[in-house]
Amino acid sequence: SQKIEQNSEALNIQEGKTATLTCNYTNYSPAYLQWYRQDPGRGPVFLLLIRENEKEKRKERLKVTFDTTLKQSLFHITASQPADSATYLCALEGKGGSYIPTFGRGTSLIVHP
Amino acid sequence: NAGVMQNPRHLVRRRGQEARLRCSPMKGHSHVYWYRQLPEEGLKFMVYLQKENIIDESGMPKERFSAEFPKEGPSILRIQQVVRGDSAAYFCASSPSRVSSNQPQHFGDGTRLSIL
């Protein structure tokens, strides 16, 4: 069956360090993969999208990589700040199937000052 | 531009009552998606609507749940005869056309439904 796996344990890091979050998937052939941020009591906010033919995408302090061989995406936040503390969700859509993105459960990031 | 607006933000119902959740998409968006999120779980797709049409309802329970997106007015997710298991956060998202690699979804802040 299709699965999207994100680390359920919270990631705790010190301010200024690089946070790296992982999204693994099985039995998908995604056309693209998205990352969202969700704060408590709020809806997800779109951050970055990376297509299957792209290896890396950057936006300010954010970087996403997409390895279709490993079936994995890594999401990096450089020079992390306490304001980056949130839950980060990955979502992907399979080619030729439903075009509705399927979301992982998300990983909580806590940046300590 | 106003974002996706959902109301009410919080809704309390007793078992057996009806819950009506409303979603006004972003201006210019004619595609609406409803998701349910339980604590410690991911967003689960329920239904996808385009003005006056249900495009995909594969994630919506067959009984007690219905959704509409009329020509005028917000999209409505309706839950009849609510049970405790319906307690969750319900999110609505919208996009200007069918969601794709060029059209990510824009989410509202959800309705928290609590069943007593």
Label this structure with key terms.
heterodimer; A: 113 residues; mainly beta; six-stranded mixed sheet; five-stranded antiparallel sheet; 11 strands; 58% strand; globular; B: 116 residues; seven-stranded mixed sheet; four-stranded antiparallel sheet; 0% helix; 48% strand
How do the strands and helices of this protein lay out in sequence?
The complex is a heterodimer of chains A (113) and B (116).
Chain A: E1 3-6, E2 11-14, E3 19-26, E4 30-38, E5 45-51, E6 56-59, E7 62-67, E8 72-77, E9 86-94, E10 102-103, E11 107-112
Chain B: E1 5-7, E2 10-13, E3 19-24, E4 31-37, E5 43-50, E6 53-56, E7 65-68, E8 75-79, E9 88-95, E10 106-107, E11 111-115
Parallel strand pairs in B: 2-11
Antiparallel strand pairs in B: 1-3, 3-8, 4-5, 4-9, 5-6, 7-8, 9-10, 9-11
Question: Short description, anyone?
Answer:
Chain A has 113 residues and is mainly β. Chain A has strands spanning 3-6, 11-14, 19-26, 30-38, 45-51, 56-59, 62-67, 72-77, 86-94, 102-103, 107-112. Chain A is globular.
Account of the protein in words:
The complex is a heterodimer of chains A (113) and B (116). Chain A is built from no helices and eleven strands. Chain A has 113 residues and is mostly beta strands. In chain A, the strands form two sheets. In chain A, strands 2, 4, 5, 9, 10 and 11 form a six-stranded mixed sheet that branches. In chain A, strands 1-3-8-7-6 form a five-stranded antiparallel sheet, with no helix packed on it. The radius of gyration of chain A is 14 Å and the shape is globular. Chain B is mainly β and 116 residues long. Helix content of chain B is 0%, strand content 48%. The radius of gyration of chain B is 13 Å and the shape is globular. The mean pLDDT of chain B is 92.
